[in-house]
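Homework help thread (please don't just give me the answer)

Our assignment gives two proteins as sequence + structure token strings and asks us to describe the second one. The first is just a warm-up. Here they are:
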Amino acid sequence: MKKIILMMFVVMMMVSPTLAVENIGQIKEDLLSPDPEVRSDRCLSLISEGKPAVGLLAPRLRDRAMLVRHCAAYALSRIGGAKVEKIFQDGLTAPEDDVRRISAVGLGVLGKADLNGLLPLLTDKNWEVRWSGAFALGRSGDRRALPPLGKIARSDPYYDSESESYPVREPAEKAIDRLNATIGWQRDLKGALALSRVIEKPLLLYFRRSGSDLCNRFERAVFTEEKIIDVAQRFIPVWLDYLTTPDLFEGYGVEQVPAIIFFSPDETRLGRVDRTIGAPALLKKMLAVLEREKSASRLRSRLKISPRNLETAWQLAECYLDEGRWDDARKMLESIIKSDPDNKSSLVDNALFARAYIDGKRGNYALAGREFSELFQKFPAFGDRTEAFYCWGLSALKAGKTAEAEEVFRRLLSEYPESNFAHIAQDILDRLPSRQE
């Protein structure tokens, strides 16, 4: 029952209101009514008043009735703004369990990342607070939350005997999937520059303007592509909006949006895009930036200096793959998989794919099939899903597992019917004995 109430609260906070403006004086009076239904109705009525109503709604987050607290939080989330965000952030450390809970959900609905406030909630004594913290972190877009989310997804102790489930683990798993399926944009350029130097990752600066239809169309068409999302995590991606930081646009010489500029950790410019381009063209440019100065000897030297730099390990593995040095490549891949169990680097899924590919090339088809299956279980939003489906199907087929191969190829056809791999999969299916009988 508690889980149902919690889910109803989240759904309510994400539905757009259709409420009329009412007399403010009467609303203020009704907010003090002994009837909780009247108080909750009045909280919802204040949505239409916008920011002036924030001061009236904030005290209702501590109302004695749960319904009123939920309606107040919902109303605040619909109004939004810096003041509302601050109210929810302050609520994360409130002594009342329910205030911490609804404040976390409120931040999640607003899509605001506050790791300093949200991460402690994952170890809160109250399971509903932990649930809300996981929900909010999943909507934060900040991949730094992956390790702690992974921990509670595996081991949160609360068990609900009524539903026979672990209700905190489920939103944690969904939060991980959501973070892995979105670009973890940062908004603080100064912090991103500092982080780039520390972890030796290049920067991807995206310049845009709120209200621009061109930017909105570009973002929907390009930044939702699986491969773009996957490769973007190998950069530190920074979202810069002209309405909030116009000085940066002038400083970087950006006169038209959308625009993208790539930088190395030492702030050397690596490339630039000054127009809208398709996902394949952008992917090519991104990969070209990552490929610069890539040689096995240089990468080995860099890895000796920074042995924990997983991007360098991945690039070295790629060099070994290109040279057919399967043992050396597998060693690098295993180090990535072992070092980053929560895929904070966004490289573990690629490493799992490459490892399975190596086993297939060596003729270990059954092992390769199991590894491809593991990849899809752990990372359902993996960027190279079409290629992985195809390789998995071939591995199963060559291992003599015809039924598994047929199931995999059917999934490929269902999820990616227009891809080149789908056409090949269809041809293979047509040739299978089970299809010819």
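The one we have to describe:
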Amino acid sequence: MSKKTLYLGPRLKRLRRELGLTQANMAADLEVSPSYVALMERNQRPLTAELLLRLAQTYRIDLSSLGTGDNEELEKRLHAATRGPIFADMDLSGLDIADISANYPDFAEAFLRLHQALSQSELALAERRERGEDSAGPANDPVNEARAFLTLRRNCFPLLDDSAEALASELPTLEALIARFTTRHTLQVHFVDPAVITGAVRWYDYHRKRIMLSNRLDHPGRRFQLALQLAMLEQERQIDGLLDQGRFASDNARTLGRRALEAYWAAALLMPYRDFARAAQELRYDVEALAAGFGVSFEQAAHRLTTLQRPGAEGVPFFFIRIDRAGNVSKRLDGAGFPFARHGGACPLWNVHAAFGQPGTVLVQKIELPDGARFLSIARTVTAGGGAHGALRVTRAIALACAEHHAGQLVYADALKDEATPMGIACRFCHRPQCLARSAPPIGRDLRSDHFRQAVTPFAFADD
């Protein structure tokens, strides 16, 4: 018999617990003393080949179940958790982490649970700060409630896609849309000066049986507004059914959810799911090319890319954000599980903020978050309003982001270098000590009182 010995204490302990045995029970089964079982579980005694075979025969287990698969997964998770900048000044070697994972798995799991709880608490605090709450109590926020409704469904509604796709071939042009209102709803469509409709872009005049659109809308805007009005007239029952699944806490949240689903259907009519998904793959997610091919705006095409998560026909999952020059977020859409999906986005190192300095230009950036996760981000400015001299025009910036492992499918990654820009969710929750762009110290770090030197960074930390 081979004299080869193994130290498998934590896995032996896990097996014993799964079998519902005490150390005394297992000792009797293996014909050893209870103290020897306790020593083996603490890796103070080896599990010999003879005992290993006896273990397999007694409990009829596959020896591979005592392998290192779970330990390797635990080690990977522990590595990821300890990569954050908060641990940057600690000497946590790979060997130390492997040793902890192998010999103290319960401690490692406890650490990971605490780390996850801390991360969730930081995210919750970020949400409260963004909503302007000073207390810890949750606020009734219809915007966040509507966003959560969309995010839970990955911003994808196959029933609406099917309904819109069935009509898309009949309504490929602006003229065909206008004809639909005339023949099916006996409504006339007029393009008028915005002053006639009190500055609005669209007005459904129910009593006079007409729809009036601002004549300052460009062609994509006119098509979208008519598609949106069609959704309100023809898709109410289907949209109500989807909203009933949301269990909204307030009428305002349900109203915002309705607006989102109506806009979803309108976009699906102009960009049918199968055709758009196929074109996105063929054009390698070139947003400008997609917008030109479907006769829509850059923002409309980018927005539609976040919805391509139909089971069995998924596209690259994207996160979408739209901000103004002051950093106010007016739209968030998430099909990617991006960390900024519910809050954040204020890091000045993100290219969505740089887009204002190069209006109309698509900026491409690879970014790395404090936990080591990498994303590809494209950003560009978009405008709303205008159409006449002196008319109010608003410039915003939008960004699309996807996980780095999808980047090869995007045309934007072709000329991009491997270097990534380090950035965080917000300064209060980013522990990178050497960031020149930092506007506030992170939570949990004490500032250094230093009368003899001025650091390059805005803040110096006491434990650096």
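TA reply:
I won't write it for you, but here's a hint about the kind of observation we're looking for: Confidence is low (pLDDT under 50) at residues 134-139.
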